[in-house]
Protein backbone atom coordinates (compact mmCIF):
# COMPACT_ATOMS: atom_id res chain seq x y z
CA UNK A 1 0.00 0.00 0.00
CA UNK A 2 1.12 3.55 -0.62
CA UNK A 3 0.90 6.40 1.90
CA UNK A 4 -2.68 7.48 1.18
CA UNK A 5 -3.98 3.94 0.75
CA UNK A 6 -2.56 3.13 4.18
CA UNK A 7 -4.31 6.13 5.71
CA UNK A 8 -7.62 5.05 4.21
CA UNK A 9 -6.99 1.44 5.27
CA UNK A 10 -6.28 2.31 8.91
CA UNK A 11 -9.25 4.69 8.90
CA UNK A 12 -11.61 1.98 7.64
CA UNK A 13 -10.30 -0.54 10.20
CA UNK A 14 -10.82 2.02 12.96
CA UNK A 15 -14.36 2.88 11.83
CA UNK A 16 -15.37 -0.78 11.45
CA UNK A 17 -14.00 -1.58 14.90
CA UNK A 18 -15.84 1.37 16.44
CA UNK A 19 -19.09 0.57 14.61
CA UNK A 20 -19.07 -3.05 15.76
CA UNK A 21 -18.22 -2.02 19.33
CA UNK A 22 -21.19 0.37 19.38
CA UNK A 23 -23.56 -2.18 17.84
CA UNK A 24 -22.50 -4.78 20.41
CA UNK A 25 -23.82 -2.66 23.29
CA UNK A 26 -26.86 -1.27 21.48
CA UNK A 27 -28.25 -4.56 20.19
CA UNK A 28 -30.89 -6.29 22.30
CA UNK A 29 -30.29 -9.70 20.79
CA UNK A 30 -27.66 -11.72 22.65
CA UNK A 31 -26.41 -13.45 19.50
CA UNK A 32 -26.07 -10.13 17.70
CA UNK A 33 -24.22 -8.70 20.69
CA UNK A 34 -21.73 -11.57 20.55
CA UNK A 35 -21.34 -11.25 16.78
CA UNK A 36 -20.58 -7.54 16.90
CA UNK A 37 -18.33 -7.89 19.98
CA UNK A 38 -16.29 -10.58 18.23
CA UNK A 39 -15.94 -8.37 15.17
CA UNK A 40 -14.85 -5.41 17.31
CA UNK A 41 -11.98 -7.49 18.72
CA UNK A 42 -11.11 -9.65 15.72
CA UNK A 43 -10.95 -6.94 13.01
CA UNK A 44 -8.06 -4.97 14.56
CA UNK A 45 -6.41 -8.14 15.92
CA UNK A 46 -6.32 -9.84 12.52
CA UNK A 47 -5.03 -6.62 10.94
CA UNK A 48 -2.19 -6.59 13.45
CA UNK A 49 -1.52 -10.30 12.95
CA UNK A 50 -1.38 -10.06 9.16
CA UNK A 51 1.12 -7.21 9.13
CA UNK A 52 4.68 -7.71 7.97
CA UNK A 53 7.75 -5.70 8.93
CA UNK A 54 5.90 -2.67 10.29
CA UNK A 55 6.18 -1.34 13.81
CA UNK A 56 9.59 -0.05 14.90
CA UNK A 57 10.47 -3.15 16.94
CA UNK A 58 9.03 -5.74 14.54
CA UNK A 59 12.30 -6.64 12.78
CA UNK A 60 14.62 -5.18 15.40
CA UNK A 61 13.29 -6.95 18.50
CA UNK A 62 10.20 -9.14 18.34
CA UNK A 63 10.79 -11.26 15.25
CA UNK A 64 14.44 -12.03 16.16
CA UNK A 65 13.28 -12.87 19.70
CA UNK A 66 10.68 -15.27 18.32
CA UNK A 67 13.31 -16.92 16.12
CA UNK A 68 15.73 -17.29 19.02
CA UNK A 69 13.07 -18.94 21.17
CA UNK A 70 12.09 -21.13 18.25
CA UNK A 71 15.58 -22.25 17.32
CA UNK A 72 17.35 -22.41 20.68
CA UNK A 73 15.72 -24.48 23.43
CA UNK A 74 17.88 -23.03 26.18
CA UNK A 75 17.72 -19.44 24.97
CA UNK A 76 17.31 -17.04 27.91
CA UNK A 77 15.12 -14.07 27.01
CA UNK A 78 15.36 -10.70 28.75
CA UNK A 79 11.62 -10.18 28.21
CA UNK A 80 8.88 -10.74 30.76
CA UNK A 81 7.78 -14.29 31.56
CA UNK A 82 4.23 -13.97 30.24
CA UNK A 83 5.36 -12.77 26.84
CA UNK A 84 8.03 -15.47 26.64
CA UNK A 85 5.50 -18.18 27.55
CA UNK A 86 3.12 -16.87 24.89
CA UNK A 87 5.95 -17.12 22.34
CA UNK A 88 6.69 -20.68 23.43
CA UNK A 89 2.99 -21.59 23.30
CA UNK A 90 2.74 -20.40 19.69
CA UNK A 91 5.94 -22.27 18.82
CA UNK A 92 4.66 -25.46 20.51
CA UNK A 93 1.55 -25.28 18.35
CA UNK A 94 3.75 -25.17 15.28
CA UNK A 95 2.48 -21.70 14.35
CA UNK A 96 4.42 -18.76 13.00
CA UNK A 97 5.15 -15.23 14.14
CA UNK A 98 1.86 -13.77 12.73
CA UNK A 99 -0.08 -15.89 15.23
CA UNK A 100 1.90 -14.34 18.08
CA UNK A 101 1.16 -10.85 16.74
CA UNK A 102 -2.52 -11.74 16.51
CA UNK A 103 -2.70 -13.10 20.06
CA UNK A 104 -0.95 -10.09 21.62
CA UNK A 105 -3.23 -7.71 19.74
CA UNK A 106 -6.29 -9.81 20.60
CA UNK A 107 -5.41 -9.60 24.29
CA UNK A 108 -4.87 -5.83 24.03
CA UNK A 109 -8.09 -5.06 22.15
CA UNK A 110 -10.15 -7.44 24.30
CA UNK A 111 -9.26 -5.70 27.56
CA UNK A 112 -9.78 -2.27 26.00
CA UNK A 113 -13.22 -3.31 24.79
CA UNK A 114 -14.17 -4.87 28.14
CA UNK A 115 -12.85 -1.80 29.94
CA UNK A 116 -14.95 0.54 27.81
CA UNK A 117 -18.08 -1.57 28.33
CA UNK A 118 -17.89 -0.78 32.04
CA UNK A 119 -18.82 2.82 31.20
CA UNK A 120 -21.47 2.13 28.54
CA UNK A 121 -24.16 4.00 30.49
CA UNK A 122 -21.98 7.11 30.55
CA UNK A 123 -20.65 7.23 26.99
CA UNK A 124 -20.63 5.86 23.48
CA UNK A 125 -18.53 2.69 23.55
CA UNK A 126 -18.03 3.01 19.79
CA UNK A 127 -16.63 6.51 20.09
CA UNK A 128 -14.34 5.38 22.91
CA UNK A 129 -13.08 2.54 20.75
CA UNK A 130 -12.52 4.95 17.86
CA UNK A 131 -10.44 7.22 20.12
CA UNK A 132 -8.36 4.19 21.11
CA UNK A 133 -7.88 3.16 17.50
CA UNK A 134 -6.73 6.63 16.48
CA UNK A 135 -4.43 7.31 19.44
CA UNK A 136 -3.10 3.91 20.48
CA UNK A 137 -3.77 1.16 17.92
CA UNK A 138 -0.83 1.86 15.63
CA UNK A 139 1.27 2.57 18.70
CA UNK A 140 0.55 -1.02 19.79
CA UNK A 141 2.35 -2.25 16.64
CA UNK A 142 5.52 -0.90 18.22
CA UNK A 143 5.19 -1.27 22.00
CA UNK A 144 3.42 -4.65 21.83
CA UNK A 145 4.17 -5.82 25.34
CA UNK A 146 3.43 -2.53 27.01
CA UNK A 147 0.22 -2.05 25.01
CA UNK A 148 -1.03 -5.38 26.37
CA UNK A 149 -0.05 -4.36 29.91
CA UNK A 150 -1.72 -0.96 29.50
CA UNK A 151 -5.01 -2.48 28.37
CA UNK A 152 -5.05 -4.94 31.28
CA UNK A 153 -4.38 -2.12 33.75
CA UNK A 154 -7.05 0.03 32.10
CA UNK A 155 -9.58 -2.73 32.73
CA UNK A 156 -8.24 -3.33 36.25
CA UNK A 157 -9.02 0.25 37.32
CA UNK A 158 -12.59 -0.93 38.02
CA UNK A 159 -11.22 -2.69 41.08
CA UNK A 160 -9.59 0.49 42.36
CA UNK A 161 -12.94 2.24 42.67
CA UNK A 162 -14.72 -0.90 43.93
CA UNK A 163 -11.88 -1.36 46.48
CA UNK A 164 -11.03 -4.96 45.61
CA UNK A 165 -7.32 -5.18 46.28
CA UNK A 166 -6.85 -8.87 45.48
CA UNK A 167 -8.41 -8.61 42.01
CA UNK A 168 -6.52 -5.41 41.21
CA UNK A 169 -3.27 -6.98 42.41
CA UNK A 170 -3.90 -10.13 40.38
CA UNK A 171 -4.54 -8.17 37.18
CA UNK A 172 -1.53 -5.94 37.83
CA UNK A 173 0.62 -9.06 38.25
CA UNK A 174 -0.83 -10.38 34.98
CA UNK A 175 -0.01 -7.07 33.26
CA UNK A 176 3.54 -7.23 34.64
CA UNK A 177 3.92 -10.60 32.95
CA UNK A 178 3.96 -8.63 29.70
CA UNK A 179 5.68 -5.43 30.81
CA UNK A 180 7.08 -4.75 34.26
CA UNK A 181 6.36 -1.03 33.93
CA UNK A 182 2.70 -1.81 34.74
CA UNK A 183 3.76 -1.60 38.39
CA UNK A 184 3.67 2.18 38.08
CA UNK A 185 -0.13 2.14 38.44
CA UNK A 186 -0.21 -0.09 41.52
CA UNK A 187 0.11 2.80 44.05
CA UNK A 188 -3.06 4.32 42.57
CA UNK A 189 -5.08 1.79 44.57
CA UNK A 190 -3.77 3.21 47.85
CA UNK A 191 -4.05 6.81 46.64
CA UNK A 192 -7.72 6.42 45.68
CA UNK A 193 -8.79 8.54 48.66
CA UNK A 194 -6.74 11.36 47.16
CA UNK A 195 -7.61 11.07 43.48
CA UNK A 196 -10.97 9.33 43.55
CA UNK A 197 -12.77 11.62 45.99
CA UNK A 198 -13.37 15.39 45.58
CA UNK A 199 -13.04 15.80 49.33
CA UNK A 200 -9.25 15.90 49.10
CA UNK A 201 -8.85 17.94 45.92
CA UNK A 202 -6.63 20.53 47.64
CA UNK A 203 -4.21 17.79 48.66
CA UNK A 204 -4.42 16.40 45.14
CA UNK A 205 -3.39 19.78 43.72
CA UNK A 206 -0.44 19.89 46.11
CA UNK A 207 0.57 16.44 44.93
CA UNK A 208 0.43 17.65 41.32
CA UNK A 209 2.76 20.50 42.19
CA UNK A 210 5.13 17.99 43.79
CA UNK A 211 4.87 15.75 40.73
CA UNK A 212 5.70 18.64 38.42
CA UNK A 213 8.77 19.36 40.54
CA UNK A 214 9.74 15.68 40.38
CA UNK A 215 9.26 15.56 36.62
CA UNK A 216 11.30 18.68 35.99
CA UNK A 217 14.08 17.30 38.18
CA UNK A 218 13.75 13.64 37.22
CA UNK A 219 17.33 13.36 36.01
CA UNK A 220 18.59 13.95 39.54
CA UNK A 221 15.85 12.05 41.37
CA UNK A 222 14.05 9.35 39.34
CA UNK A 223 16.97 8.31 37.15
CA UNK A 224 19.26 7.32 40.09
CA UNK A 225 16.38 5.50 41.84
CA UNK A 226 15.53 3.33 38.83
CA UNK A 227 19.19 2.79 38.10
CA UNK A 228 19.70 1.44 41.61
CA UNK A 229 16.95 -1.19 41.44
CA UNK A 230 18.10 -4.29 39.62
CA UNK A 231 14.78 -5.32 38.07
CA UNK A 232 14.10 -1.76 36.90
CA UNK A 233 17.60 -0.82 35.75
CA UNK A 234 16.69 -1.63 32.14
CA UNK A 235 13.98 1.06 32.23
CA UNK A 236 16.25 3.73 33.71
CA UNK A 237 17.42 4.69 30.23
CA UNK A 238 13.86 5.86 29.56
CA UNK A 239 14.73 8.82 31.79
CA UNK A 240 17.99 9.84 30.19
CA UNK A 241 18.00 13.59 29.53
CA UNK A 242 18.75 14.78 26.00
CA UNK A 243 17.62 18.43 25.99
CA UNK A 244 16.21 21.18 28.16
CA UNK A 245 12.46 21.73 28.37
CA UNK A 246 10.91 24.28 26.06
CA UNK A 247 7.26 25.02 25.40
CA UNK A 248 5.97 24.05 21.97
CA UNK A 249 2.66 23.63 20.16
CA UNK A 250 3.00 19.91 20.85
CA UNK A 251 2.74 20.50 24.60
CA UNK A 252 -0.51 22.39 24.01
CA UNK A 253 -2.06 19.98 21.49
CA UNK A 254 -1.44 16.93 23.67
CA UNK A 255 -2.65 18.34 26.97
CA UNK A 256 -5.00 21.35 26.93
CA UNK A 257 -7.70 19.89 24.61
CA UNK A 258 -8.06 16.90 26.92
CA UNK A 259 -7.80 18.73 30.25
CA UNK A 260 -9.84 21.89 29.64
CA UNK A 261 -13.20 20.11 29.01
CA UNK A 262 -12.62 18.13 32.21
CA UNK A 263 -12.30 21.33 34.20
CA UNK A 264 -15.43 22.70 32.51
CA UNK A 265 -17.29 19.50 33.44
CA UNK A 266 -15.67 19.05 36.83
CA UNK A 267 -19.03 19.15 38.63
CA UNK A 268 -20.33 16.27 36.52
CA UNK A 269 -17.12 14.28 36.90
CA UNK A 270 -17.22 14.64 40.68
CA UNK A 271 -20.56 12.81 40.77
CA UNK A 272 -18.93 9.59 39.56
CA UNK A 273 -15.84 8.45 41.46
CA UNK A 274 -14.74 6.39 38.45
CA UNK A 275 -14.72 9.38 36.13
CA UNK A 276 -13.14 11.59 38.77
CA UNK A 277 -10.32 9.08 39.20
CA UNK A 278 -9.79 8.81 35.44
CA UNK A 279 -9.58 12.58 35.07
CA UNK A 280 -7.02 12.83 37.85
CA UNK A 281 -4.99 10.07 36.23
CA UNK A 282 -5.13 12.04 32.98
CA UNK A 283 -3.75 15.10 34.78
CA UNK A 284 -0.85 13.00 36.05
CA UNK A 285 -0.34 11.58 32.57
CA UNK A 286 -0.08 15.07 31.10
CA UNK A 287 2.47 15.97 33.75
CA UNK A 288 4.51 12.83 33.07
CA UNK A 289 4.31 13.60 29.38
CA UNK A 290 6.32 16.76 29.97
CA UNK A 291 9.35 14.50 30.36
CA UNK A 292 9.01 13.50 26.71
CA UNK A 293 10.11 17.01 25.77
CA UNK A 294 13.40 16.72 27.63
CA UNK A 295 14.35 13.05 27.24
CA UNK A 296 14.49 10.31 24.68
CA UNK A 297 11.18 9.22 23.14
CA UNK A 298 10.77 6.27 25.48
CA UNK A 299 9.99 8.50 28.44
CA UNK A 300 6.52 9.04 27.07
CA UNK A 301 5.83 5.38 27.69
CA UNK A 302 5.57 6.09 31.41
CA UNK A 303 2.78 8.55 30.70
CA UNK A 304 0.73 6.16 28.57
CA UNK A 305 -0.60 4.28 31.60
CA UNK A 306 -2.11 7.52 32.88
CA UNK A 307 -3.15 8.88 29.49
CA UNK A 308 -5.22 5.91 28.30
CA UNK A 309 -8.27 7.23 30.25
CA UNK A 310 -8.60 9.55 27.25
CA UNK A 311 -10.58 6.79 25.55
CA UNK A 312 -13.23 7.11 28.27
CA UNK A 313 -13.05 10.82 28.91
CA UNK A 314 -13.30 12.06 25.30
CA UNK A 315 -16.67 10.34 24.62
CA UNK A 316 -17.81 11.38 28.10
CA UNK A 317 -16.97 14.99 27.29
CA UNK A 318 -18.89 14.73 24.03
CA UNK A 319 -22.04 13.46 25.73
CA UNK A 320 -21.93 15.88 28.66
CA UNK A 321 -21.16 18.87 26.45
CA UNK A 322 -24.02 17.94 24.14
CA UNK A 323 -26.36 18.00 27.13
CA UNK A 324 -25.02 21.47 27.95
CA UNK A 325 -25.67 22.50 24.34
CA UNK A 326 -21.95 22.98 23.79
CA UNK A 327 -21.53 20.24 21.23
CA UNK A 328 -18.94 22.26 19.35
CA UNK A 329 -16.44 21.84 22.18
CA UNK A 330 -16.82 18.06 22.02
CA UNK A 331 -16.33 18.17 18.25
CA UNK A 332 -13.20 20.29 18.77
CA UNK A 333 -11.78 17.75 21.25
CA UNK A 334 -12.34 14.90 18.81
CA UNK A 335 -10.81 17.04 16.05
CA UNK A 336 -7.61 17.16 18.12
CA UNK A 337 -7.70 13.36 18.40
CA UNK A 338 -7.99 13.12 14.63
CA UNK A 339 -5.22 15.70 14.17
CA UNK A 340 -2.85 13.77 16.47
CA UNK A 341 -3.59 10.56 14.54
CA UNK A 342 -2.69 12.19 11.23
CA UNK A 343 0.30 14.10 12.61
CA UNK A 344 1.88 11.31 14.65
CA UNK A 345 1.48 8.30 12.41
CA UNK A 346 1.33 9.77 8.91
CA UNK A 347 3.23 13.06 9.02
CA UNK A 348 5.91 12.19 11.58
CA UNK A 349 5.88 8.46 10.84
CA UNK A 350 5.79 7.45 14.51
CA UNK A 351 6.11 3.70 15.12
CA UNK A 352 6.80 3.11 11.41
CA UNK A 353 3.36 1.70 10.61
CA UNK A 354 3.05 3.40 7.22
CA UNK A 355 2.79 2.09 4.59
CA UNK A 356 0.84 -0.91 5.82
CA UNK A 357 2.33 -4.17 4.57
CA UNK A 358 0.78 -7.60 4.99
CA UNK A 359 2.21 -11.13 4.95
CA UNK A 360 0.26 -11.75 1.75
CA UNK A 361 2.48 -9.47 -0.36
Automatic annotation (TrEMBL):
InterPro entries associated with the record: EpsG-like
A Pfam match: EpsG
Segments passing through the bilayer: 6-23, 35-54, 89-116, 123-139, 165-190, 202-225, 245-265, 277-296, 302-318, 327-346
Keywords noted in UniProt: Membrane, Transmembrane, Transmembrane helix
Full protein name: Transmembrane protein EpsG
Amino acid sequence: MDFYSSMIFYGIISLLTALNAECSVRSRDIRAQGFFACNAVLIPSLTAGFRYGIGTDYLLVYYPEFQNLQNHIHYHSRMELGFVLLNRFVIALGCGFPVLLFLVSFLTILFVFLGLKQYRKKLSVGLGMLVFMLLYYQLSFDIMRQAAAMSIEFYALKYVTSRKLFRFSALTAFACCFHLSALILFPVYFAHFLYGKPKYQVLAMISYAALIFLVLNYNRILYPILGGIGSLRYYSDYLRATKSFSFSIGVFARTVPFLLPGFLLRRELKRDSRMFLLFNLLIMGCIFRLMAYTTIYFTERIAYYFLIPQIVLVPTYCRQLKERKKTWIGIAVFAFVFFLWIYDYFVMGSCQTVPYQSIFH
